[in-house]
Amino acid sequence: MLYNAYEMQRSLLAGASAMANFSAGVLQNPANPFAYFGGGPILGSALEVFAHAAAPRGKPEFGLDHTEIDGRIVAVHEQIVVRKPFGQLKRFARDGIVGGPKLLIAAPMSGHYATLLRGTVERMLPFADVYITDWRDAKLVPLSDGTFDLDDYIDYLIEFMEHLGPNEGEGGSHMLAVCQPSVPCYAAACLMSADKHPSRPRTLTMMGGPIDTREAPTAVNTLATQRPYAWFEQNVIATVPMTYPGAGRKVYPGFLQLAGFMSMNLGNHMISHWEMFKHLVDGDGESADATKDFYEEYRSVCDMTAEFYLQTIEVVFQKHAIANGTYLHRGRLCDPGAITDIALLAIEGERDDISGLGQTKAALTLASGLPAAKKQYMMAEGAGHYGIFNGSKWRTKIAPAVEQWIAAHP
User: What is the pTM of this model?
Assistant: First the structure.
């Protein structure tokens, strides 16, 4: 019922958005006298804000067709190098560039598409041969393709690293985990290290990841621990409607995830839209477009499988299995002490309200078999959760530190 009710509301808002967009265009048309005086500019701007907020959204494009290397513009082409039912490995191939480090960026499976890391990819392109985990919207995956949980996520990561090839040659292979994937990436590092897997990464960088959520718990952590596992199973899991290829699949809907994130900072979101409205009234289209671009990405959400969401709640947030050293991947213990030669870099944002200070740093302490010279911690001053991997602080302070760490372990 929940999903069907949402679909009905989405359809109604889509029509209202189209009508508002048309009306705003009429009111703002230079040929319309009301575009210059009276309430025309104000009403047109208000309708434009509403139209943008209510418009339906699909999967955004990365749109990265070039980068600059040593002062030269280099064309970039997206390539799908591995296809799996619940995700694919995407490579951003740089024309004429050979060698250098290979970097697998693990994107969160947390309600947003991998394009949320567009700025992360763009900044690393001049430095590395970049690959990214491009997760699929669960409502588009037929039931015949089976299930997908945290253990499957780890298996995918290992397979993707195997595609990058044995960790040999110039630059080597490296892994970068943004937020939630820090846990499965860390688990994969444990397993691959224990096996002396030839494709294990030379470095693993974890940014804002919930390795040990008992450290400086945030509102997200508190929500996950205040309610029992059964509450999540009964209240936030929905069934995909018949209109989608994944009809009948149990999912944690993206629209619920988005509602949760919006409610955490509702005041800030309201102020952002008010500022966008004022920019439109003042004719400052550039500033208004910047806000629109952010929310275009932020509101593009996808579903995740119920089994992945519920296992993550139980293992990561309620049992703290990774931090306790009790997490079993298909019956096999993921032992952080097995990590002996994968250099670890933990990065946290000073103002992160999703993964608190100390949660990612815990990975360094848990890796008891790793020499101190292969561990490094960075606290990004003034950075919030999204500022760790996007924006000016990422581009000018954090990314250079990641590059230096990778370069130090070729």
Answer: 0.84
